[in-house]
Design goal:
This protein has helices at residues 47-50, 53-68; strands spanning 4-5, 12-13, 17-18, 25-26, 31-36, 42-46. With 87 residues, it is an alpha+beta fold. The strands form 3 sheets. A two-stranded antiparallel sheet has the order 1-2. A two-stranded antiparallel ribbon has the order 3-4. The longest helix is centred in the C-terminal third of the chain and has 16 residues, at 53-68. The chain is elongated and about 70 Å long. Bound molecules: zinc ion (ZN) (2 copies). One zinc ion (ZN) binds at residues 6, 8-9, 11, 26-27, 29-30.
């Protein structure tokens, strides 16, 4: 198994998560906050991005938006056929 290095602190780690804001692969130590957005998705923000108020705000908004629509991807848009009301 290949050892990967954190793109923020360069420490070798066997578990990296991608920051939702800067897309860096960061280790557990560099992850400032992580939240489960949906059943399958996890949102992670690194410590660098956390210090930026704008990025932090965006992160929270994303999580909240996703959490409010957890089953969104289960609904596929089907073409809606208009049926005449008169038989
Ligand atoms: Zn790190
Ligand atoms: Zn980041």
């Amino acid at each position: 198994m290949a050892i990967v290095r954190c793109e923020r602190c360069s420490e070798p780690s066997d578990y990296l998560e991608v920051c939702d804001s800067c897309n860096k692969r960061v280790c557990r130590k560099c992850v400032k906050s992580s939240r489960r957005a949906t059943k399958h998705e996890r949102r992670v923000i690194c410590k660098d991005c956390w210090t930026s108020v704008a990025k932090r705000k965006k992160f929270k908004e994303k999580v909240v938006t996703a959490a409010n629509q957890p089953e969104e991807h289960h609904f596929e848009r089907r073409p809606f056929k208009r049926r005449p009301m008169k038989r």
